DNA sequence: ATATATTTTTAGTCAAGACTAAAAATAGGG
DNA sequence: CCCTATTTTTAGTCTTGACTAAAAATATAT
């Protein structure tokens, strides 16, 4: 059985592992989890003892199959609860994170799977992130970042990578939501900002914003 | 902010306080919570420091107004989640306890209150226990124990006091559920067993069982 | 009323998980 | 290739919440 703290480390390694790196560094985990490298070293040894992680001193960490499945289950729970909060309890997409962060640690296989069924087996959470199935798998996402599109192309806003409430509130303010049709009108070479056509108006978004918006076509 | 452990102590004192006693004994709490008296002493001091409990050495513990409200909120959450599990996630009444025991510690006022609304503001959980409102209050229950009825009187099964899965499974096996009409047919003086008419058949229940069944009329 | 039994508290440990400061290993630049 | 900067680990502490064993207070019984 995994503790709450172990689950948070597994999740951090899981997410960091997704973005390329074969082995994740102690410091990267510490930063993600807002703790210190020394604490990470301790915990990572424990995960290795439990056969949840591969760990070689000074060489970084990666998940074992067991560890990856455990992490995926936490992510699955997190995202299913987010759907529940938005669809059934009138939460908005910028309010769900902290609560889902707690709910993801509730231990009951029946609970997760019944919740999944109750929600109609959703494939994505309110931010467009994919929901892993019981075995930790999900269909590879094919959405593409705005910065990689051609001028004139359009698509549907399918994923926002940053789920912080500051960013989501920015999107709310600009009337941008998942499912909206967006058209790329112009790239500005000076600062990499992008002019886009939203469902209500034309707006200029900075590179930092554009980096977090993914469209499906 | 209360910790998970503090909340469990508050809940124990709250429940023990309901059954009469003005001040609850260290040993009683230890037994309820399956810990040791010495651990209870430590925690109770902490609760007193936080103004959640009144505590006099060797004299027992009681809750302050703040403590009682905090405890009632935990109970409120526990019972609301039980309703959700049974009504929406296909849990049966003997499966909900362990999961609700975890869910009751999720911290989010919005979550509790939205859940309450989603469920249609239920007044009782699946075992017939009353659900406290936001302020910790609930209508006094007027159901009466089977052992206090007259022969020939009947009522609706409104509350089962023991919510352990062993007991609930016994009731399932005998086809007894909340809302069923039950008639008292005979009291046996030798062992205080009771013959009752259920919706399907006549059965004899032991004193131990009868003690836990409450009818409303 | 005093001796004994029971309950409660105190004192001292322990494990989990986090931290700081210092030591060790690795990486990078000249 | 060596010297320095950075990263990672180790060693030692701290806090929370629990425990055991011993001491202190209270309750009970003759």
- Beta-strand residue percentage of chain A: 15-25%
User: In the CATH hierarchy, what is the class of the domain at 144-216 in chain A?
Assistant: Mainly Beta
Q: Output the helix-strand order of chain A.
A: HHHEEHHHEEHEEEHE
Q: What can be said about the biggest beta sheet of chain A?
A: 6 strands, antiparallel
Termini separation of chain A: 42 Å
Round the mean pLDDT of chain A to the nearest integer and report it.
96
Tell me the number of strands of chain A. 8
Biggest interface: chains and residue counts?
A: A-B, 18 and 18 residues
Number of helices of chain A: 8
Structure description:
The structure is a homodimer of 217-residue chains. Chain A is of the alpha+beta class and 217 residues long. Among the domains of chain A are: 4-63, Winged helix-like DNA-binding domain superfamily/Winged helix DNA-binding domain (Arc Repressor Mutant, subunit A, Orthogonal Bundle); 144-216, Ferrous iron transport protein A (FeoA) (SH3 type barrels, Roll), CATH 2.30.30.90. In chain A, 41% of the residues lie in helices and 18% in strands. Chain A contains eight helices and eight strands, in the order H-H-H-E-E-H-H-H-E-E-H-E-E-E-H-E. In chain A, the strands form two sheets. Chain A has a six-stranded antiparallel beta sheet with strand order 3-8-4-5-6-7. Chain A has a two-stranded antiparallel ribbon with strand order 1-2. In chain A, helix 2 packs across helix 3 (37-49). The first copy, chain A, is globular. The model of chain A has no long low-confidence stretch (mean pLDDT 96). Chain A binds chain B through residues 85, 88-91, 95, 98-99, 102-103, 106-108, 110-111, 114-115, 118, and chain B through 85, 88-91, 95, 98-99, 102-103, 106-108, 110-111, 114-115, 118. Chain A binds a DNA duplex (30 and 30 nucleotides) through helix 3.
